[in-house]
Specification:
The strands form three sheets. Strands 2-8-7-6-5-3-4 form a seven-stranded mixed β-sheet, sandwiched between helices. Strands 1-10 form a two-stranded parallel ribbon. A two-stranded antiparallel ribbon has the order 9-11. The longest helix is centred in the C-terminal third of the chain and has 24 residues. The chain folds into two domains: 139 residues, Aspartate Aminotransferase, domain 1; 224 residues, Type I PLP-dependent aspartate aminotransferase-like (Major domain) (Aspartate Aminotransferase, domain 2), CATH 3.40.640. Helix 2 runs antiparallel to helix 10, helix 3 packs parallel to helix 10 and helix 4 packs parallel to helix 5. Helices cover 36% and strands 14% of the residues. The N terminus is likely disordered. By secondary structure, it is α/β, with parallel strands linked by helices.
């Protein structure tokens, strides 16, 4: 059975990544399709742990899902092909360049199986999203993890030094999970151009919509380069708000798609996911609204943090990573005791916590719980 992002992250620690360490210490709202009803019973948690879209699915996707319930007894074969075509048109690509997966983790699994194996090597940053590492090890491949640099970007120079003739895949998560940081586009292009011809590059753009367009960041789908080694992965789990339906895709050269396709589980995409994704893809108004609301709440998070003499990592996502200067495991447990779930423990950053951006009242609950920490009122200067 495939492992979803959520279940996978509950069971896998980042510590298996070849022992790499980072060199720096571094009243109830009215429910709608944008704002789900928050928990009302004391045994329910506020969920700030999985980087989900707190506002729900897009308007058009919600309407389509309601109407599609009467047809869940039918296989989604025709809808699958139609969604592939829509994604291709949306990105100015050909259908032969598009591959769908049961969540973006299935795309990562297919890439690992297609391009890695015994005697082959993956190079990745650390910390980062861990799924590709697990899949690499499952096929007998080696993993080399390179710590992020002092700005929490990919240390591309050090990664390039670790690349060898046996390196057949490099993983780039941009913006990066768990740090929320970005690596400049121009640096990535220079890095990719210097890789061996047999080395594919998997760029995970799960948080693309939150990053915005700038001289620092540009998607490799929206502004592609002529390099058939590049595979760009996207997810409907984040800004589209469809995490529970499990759907992701990638854009790549037809030859790469063909290599990966044989490792995609046949019939793994369900009809609700396909129809909701097709509607959500075109719902630009909802996406803009989600991004704006996330940006405003993220800024408010930074305002509240700075008022408490805290300095989170600059985030380009729907979550924030912040140094507590105390063991993070104890901080995570404190929030759990306050009925708030935040991101898991990251051994390479063992005083940091990752907090997903939630609804305004949920974030107020987070800071209320923060202020109950024994060290919360200490004024520290770093």
């Amino acid at each position: 059975m495939l492992v979803s992002r959520r279940n996978f992250l509950r069971t896998v620690g980042i510590g298996a990544a070849a022992g790499a360490t980072v060199p720096w210490a571094l009243g109830r709202p009215v429910p709608s399709v944008f704002e789900p009803m928050r928990p009302t019973t004391p045994d329910r948690f506020i969920r700030l742990d999985n980087n989900e879209n707190a506002y729900g699915a897009c308007r058009k996707a919600s309407a389509v899902m309601n109407s599609a319930l009467s047809e869940v007894n039918r296989y989604p074969d025709a809808d699958y092909d139609e969604l592939t075509d829509r994604i291709a048109r949306f990105h100015g690509a050909r259908p032969s360049q598009v591959l769908l997966g049961c969540g973006s983790t299935e795309i990562l699994r297919a890439a690992a199986m297609a391009f890695l194996g015994i005697g082959k090597q993956l190079v990745q940053p650390s910390p980062t999203f861990e799924a590709i590492e697990r899949y690499t090890r499952s096929v007998g491949g080696d993993v080399l993890s390179v710590p992020l640099d002092s700005k929490f970007a990919h240390d591309l120079g050090s990664m390039r030094e670790r690349v060898s003739p046996s390196t057949t895949l490099v993983y780039i998560c941009n913006p990066n999970n768990p740090t929320g940081s970005i690596t400049p586009r121009k640096n990535l292009e220079a890095f990719i151009s210097g890789l061996p011809v047999n080395c594919h590059v998997l760029i995970d753009e799960a948080y693309h919509h939150y990053a915005g367009e700038s001289s620092m960041y540009t998607s490799f789908i929206d502004d592609p380069i002529a390099d058939e080694r590049i595979i760009v992965c996207r997810s409907f789990s984040k800004v589209h708000g469809l995490a529970g339906l499990r759907l992701g895709y990638c854009i790549a050269a037809p030859s790469s798609i063909q290599s990966m396709r044989s490792y995609i589980t046949f019939g793994s995409i369900n009809s609700l996911a396909v129809r909701a994704a097709a509607a959500s893809l075109e719902d630009r108004e909802s996406i803009r609204d989600f991004v704006r609301r996330n940006r405003d709440e993220r800024q408010e998070f930074f305002n509240q943090a700075m008022a408490r003499v805290l300095k989170p990592i600059d985030s380009h996502t729907n979550f924030v990573m912040m140094n507590t200067y105390h063991p993070s495991e104890g901080v995570i447990e404190h929030f759990r005791n306050e009925n708030i779930l935040i991101g898991r423990y990251f051994p390479a950053m063992n005083t940091y916590i990752r907090v997903s951006i939630g609804l305004p009242e949920e974030m107020q609950g987070f800071w209320k719980a923060w202020d109950k920490l024994p060290f919360a009122k200490e004024r520290r200067h770093h």
